[in-house]
Design goal:
Length: about 375
């Protein structure tokens, strides 16, 4: 007999053993207590929701859901991040995952979650309503870039101070810097270090004259997140990260609303790529669209205009921008009556993807419309 239920705290040792086994057999050796201490360190049992399929009281499949709150000034939305999606290798093909994902998604809707994200293969998760969307930049730097560009940047001296202890006073300063950005995920201060150590990353304070001027989260030669209070420190901070990594290349992941990083890297990089961020599903279109239009309005002056469009199964919506201020409303009793109709999959690609122009080619947008793509992207530390 198969039982589907939410985990209780006593299940956690078995959950940890199960996901370690499944991911280690499918990929490379995994230790989720090390990879995701924010979820699997002792004492973290109440922070997430695990859905289990049990056969004869043994776990055969698992899905983890971690709700987070995204903030942009006075606006917030709730995002359900999904991870630890796993099925026992000998139990695949029995429909366990389909059932668990259905239960989890129904719970998200009942809990008024605005959107959800998870990592993994695009077509696999399209079965459950997810589509690849959002976008991120990845910049590559080499020693030659620093050698040739040194004269273009201020000569500043910084040091990297690794944060390993929750009692380190720099943690409070670093969290304050993070929360001073256009968009951030709300975090409990007691969990901050565990979150920033996800994916085997190391957290460093960036110090100049013993004062904290920013931070960087470094995973090997990949900077997963960097924030600075003084953009003039970018050159020195990147060069120090390259030395710390011991590599011949350094990669910096930049979110689309981190515009000062994008601008300051222009003279320095060797190459860059733009990629889709992750799989997303939207439940509350007015709230999500309004949130990310407001995010974009913080770094781009949005042109005025009005646009109606329909998302099949979600009714018809209107985006209105007046004097740079956006708003989104749901138009009652007009589903299917707009000349612009998207499926939920098409809407992600048309409104949030870097090649959104392809999805909007035959759409009559307001003149000089500069609203899209919307800057949908999350830090790896806010996912699970």
């Amino acid at each position: 007999m198969v039982i589907y239920r939410k985990a209780i705290p006593d299940d956690f040792p078995n959950i940890l053993n199960f996901i370690n086994m499944v991911f280690s057999m499918s990929h490379c050796p995994h230790d989720f207590r090390q990879l995701l201490p924010k979820l699997y360190e002792k004492g973290q049992e109440e922070k997430s929701i695990h859905y289990l399929a049990l056969e004869n009281e043994e776990i055969k499949a698992c899905v983890c859901v971690l709700p987070i709150t995204l903030c942009c000034e006075n606006k917030t939305i709730t995002c359900a991040t999904v991870g630890s999606v796993s099925v026992h290798p000998y139990s695949r093909g029995k429909g366990y995952m389909r059932k668990l994902m259905h239960i989890a998604i129904e719970d998200m809707k009942k809990s008024n979650i605005s959107m959800s994200t998870l990592s993994g293969l695009r077509n696999r998760y399209q079965y459950y309503g997810y589509e690849k969307g959002g976008f991120v930049f990845q910049y590559c730097f080499t020693p030659d870039n620093f050698r040739h560009c040194r004269e273009k940047f201020p000569n500043r001296k910084i040091t990297l101070c690794q944060i390993q202890d929750t009692e380190n006073p720099l943690l409070t300063e670093i969290q304050a810097i993070q929360e001073n950005q256009i968009l951030f995920a709300k975090k409990n201060p007691s969990d901050f270090l565990a979150i920033m150590k996800s994916w085997n990353a190391k957290l460093y304070g960036i110090l100049e004259n013993q004062m904290c001027k920013g931070y960087v989260a470094l995973q090997g030669n990949q900077i997963l997140e960097m924030r600075l209070t003084d953009k003039a420190l970018l050159f020195a901070s990147l060069e120090e990260c390259l030395k710390e990594s011991g590599s011949k290349e350094l990669f910096l992941r930049i979110l689309p609303y981190d515009t000062y990083l994008l601008k300051e890297c222009t003279q320095l990089f060797e190459s860059f790529t733009i990629a889709l961020d992750d799989n997303y599903m939207i439940f509350d279109y007015p709230k999500v669209l309004d949130f990310f239009l407001n995010v974009k309005s913080k770094y781009t002056s949005l042109n005025s205009g009005s646009w109606d469009f329909t998302i099949k199964g979600h009714r018809t919506f209107q985006i209105q921008v007046d004097n740079g201020v956006p708003s989104v409303t749901q138009l009652k009793d007009l589903e299917g009556k707009s000349s612009v109709n998207f499926s939920s999959f098409e809407s992600i690609l048309a409104l949030f993807a870097p090649n959104c122009g392809m999805g909007l080619l035959e759409t009559k947008l307001p003149e000089n419309c500069n609203w899209f793509p919307l800057p949908l992207a999350l830090s790896p530390f806010d996912k699970c």
